[in-house]
Amino acid sequence: MDNVNAIEDKSMESTTSVQYIVVKIGSEQYGININYIDNIVRSEPITRVPKTQTYYKGVINLRGEIIPVMSVRIKLGLEPDEFTDKTRFIIVKVDGATIGVIVDQVKEVVTLDNDSIEKVNKANNSDAAANYIESIGKSNGELISLLDIVGLIVEASEK
Amino acid sequence: MDVSQYLEIFIDESSEHLQSISDGVMVLEKEPDNQDTINEIFRAAHSLKGMAGTMGYKRMQNLTHDMENVFSEVRNGNISVTSDMCDVLFQCMDALESYVDNIRNNQDEGTEDNEDIIKALNAFIEGIGGDGKKEAKKEETKAEEAKEEPKQEEAKAAKSDNNQLEGLTLADFERSAVNEALEKNISVFNIKVEVEESCVLKAARAFLVFKNLEGHCEVIKSEPTTQDIEDERFEFEFRLLITTEEEIDSIVSIIKSVSEIKDATPIQVTDKLDEEEEKPEEKPKEEKKPATKETKPASKEEKKPAAKEPAKGGGKAVSHTVRVDIEKLDVLMNLVSELIIAKNGLVSASNDGENGGIKSANFTEQIEYLERVTTNLHESVMKVRMMPIESVISKFPRMVRDLSKKLDKKMELYITGEDTELDRTVIDEIGDPIMHMIRNSADHGLEPTDVRIERGKPEVGTIALNAFQEGNNVVIEVKDDGNGIDTERVKAKAVEKGAITQEQADSMTEKEAVDLLFRPSFSTAEKITDVSGRGVGLDVVKSKIEALGGDVEVKTVYGQGSTFSIRLPLTLAIIQALMVKLGEEKYAISLGSIETIEDIAISEIKYVHAKEVIHLRGSVIPLIRLRELLDVPGEPEESDTIVVVIVRKGDKLAGLVVDSLIGQMEIVIKSLGKYISINKMISGATILGDGSVALIIDANTLV
Q1: Predicted ipTM?
Q2: Alpha-carbon distance A108 to A32, whole Å?
Q3: Which amino acids of B are annotated catalytic?
Q4: Which fold would CATH assign to domain B389-569?
Q5: Residue B179 pLDDT
Q6: Which CATH architecture has domain B144-283?
Q7: Where are the beta strands (DSSP E) in B181-330?
Q8: Does residue A33 carry a pLDDT above 60?
């Protein structure tokens, strides 16, 4: 929360703004709210966990802690991950749990204010991917799908 | 008066006193004339009252006071212990416990006066005439006075300048303070305060003495100094030189009101102190002072043995204990875990031939040394965290007594192995499951008294609670000589409830039928009682024990009784494990559950019900192909033999087929996090020496 306040203080304009990390998954660009992000690490060998949810690729050792790693691609119904030099694990903290999210590439950090974020109506979408898109952000003429990271992780376990 | 820093001591000690009173009353109920027990209870009640009073908990003090009165009457032989009285006393204990609970939770005793209990208590005393109480009290105080008087006389008789300052050496300003007080007709006393030798927290008691004296008198000097007293650098007595305008008796009683203070003997200082005389006395003192100062900056190690020696010389073994917050121990445990991971890293780095590695003999030796140290360190930390199981099970005799009354069945609880130790975190969790099992035995197990007589069993039912260590496990058994489990009725009930079909019931083994009891919402008690029968119970026990990494087993003989055993791992955090390889993946299996490791020729595999089994030393052991169970990718290499890890759970065996063995390793168990769903057979993960992660297979779930 301190982060949010700090950002608000800096941009004393009429609207609030939030920073997003822009990542590439498949051919699309997604934004992840920076407040949930603990860390970004290079990809490393994943230990497979048998009989778990298909979108959990397994677990990794992050400085002595065991962290489950989730494939957003499988979760969103895309092609399976291909691990390259650019593959990164975004370590997010949600609801007291730490989880790694696999992305193809980390591009940049953007600051979006409220004006440039458009809510999407989830009800109109039957697409699996759309369920986890919170809103669409516009930055430098490009569209970024902003991920509902909490929904992605918390709901996932309930299904 | 600020007593908050003694709150924890107060809570701990009150609980201890309550427990010992409760134990005592249990004994008294059976042997009402046991004088030793009566005295013990009286002492405990008295200390409890004193402590509550010191801490300012008036309601608690009142209740204890009335309870103490009853005990006092019993002690004096004016009334005898009856079963009714025990009931009231237990109610009283419950009320006191709830005070202590309140204090623990919000530092306040609450507003419940428990007047009905006080009334009931007083009714016992009034039963023998209203004055008895006062008389007894008077006698007591008289006795105390009588004790004091001779001492005072003695002191007066031997009054001389030396004696009146016995045990004290005064500095100039202190002498003049004494003289000044005497001039103003203020009394000066040299008081010897004795602390009970069993007292563990001498410093705290002494502190309370000082605190309580505040406002009543002025302390000119103490021997040893207040600082030394606070640091507990004194034997079982210390001296105070005070000036006061109050009666010395009231001062002495203030000092004595602090619990565990054995005695306080005042000597009045009446003669003015001679300024001349002090000088020769001063000199040796001055010599002493620099000497003590020199030792102070010197290393503490030198001082400590010195301080300990006299304590040993005193003849009484004083246990040196430190109370430590459990959180600090958790931190310590985590650090030990990290150290072990780092050590494993070092071991694997030294063996890594491809990247150079280190092959020097000296290095290997040092690594081995490090391994020994970390293993010992881990064991020591574990031991620090261990607590005897007694703290949980000590409340059960009382519970069985209540159950006996409530269910109108006669029963006795026999406990063995209460000194068996378990990790503190396990101890905290284990109370409820054991309680469930005892209730279960009392309610479902033991037959009503008339049935027992009919069956030729002893009228009084027996419930035995046995705890003991077995290998790396602790086993807790609850055994009764009751009815045993009627498997036919269990099956019928399960069919009736739709849990199983009639066919399933017919083909069930005895053991499977018993296991039905552990299914959720299953109770065979025909009537729902306060005690059990609501269908929550054994399944809760099972899930709780499994969450702690243990398991529950039942043995029963219909008509003769049943035994429920809980098996728990000694440690939860760090275990010795066998590392095995399946394809490219590494897994750990707890060494505690491994019986043997065998090389078996493929030709020896037999089939029973289309399942693979092997014959080994007379027993038939089912094989479990871990590769298939864990969906390991790839195909195993063709080979004439297979490696089988034989694991045991209770008296069942199973053979786990693995590709190859890596070796034994000390591993730290880590959880996988809450959002990833893991199969029951994976009990956690661990970090290997090379930084990679291996999953831990819980063999218990496979057998």
Answers
A1: 0.81
A2: 11
A3: 46, 68, 440
A4: Heat Shock Protein 90 (3.30.565)
A5: 76
A6: 2-Layer Sandwich (3.30)
A7: 187-195, 218-223, 237-244, 261-269
A8: yes
